[in-house]
Amino acid sequence: MKTNVRLLKQGSEKDDMNAKSLSTILHLKQRNEELEKENAIIKQKAQAAQQLSLAARLASNAKDRVGEEALREKEVRPMTFLLFFLSFLSFADLIVAFNMLSVAG
Question: How far apart are CA 97 and CA 105, in angstroms?
Fold first, then answer.
């Protein structure tokens, strides 16, 4: 009878230990899933940050190119007007204009 009580007690202890182990396993599994979701979110945020950084860099480069183009346009426009104006003058008119500029300068 003592053996039966002892065996029943051991069986009960094993059942308690198994229940605790199962509870720990389920808790760790749930925590692992939570961490995997957090990791996926962090990866998405990192990718979005990289895309934002690339977009900012491309926008900055485009701004620089637009500024350079605007500067070139300012340099070319007066010369274009001058060439357009000069195309209507005869050679004699050009000599007179050049002499006037030489005297004025």
Answer: 12
Token pair listed for 40? 């996926």
The number of domains in the chain is 1
Asked if residue 105 has pLDDT above 60, the reply is no
Strand residue runs (E) in 8-73: none
pLDDT in tens, 47-58: 999 998 888 888
User: What's the angle, vertex CA 97, arms to CA 93 and CA 101, rounded to 5?
Assistant: 170
Return the DSSP state at 14. H
Going by pLDDT thresholds of 50, 70 and 90, the confidence category of residue 77 is low
pTM reported for the whole predicted model: 0.52
Domain span holding position 88: 2-104
What is d(CA 105, CA 95) in angstroms, rounded to the nearest whole number?
15
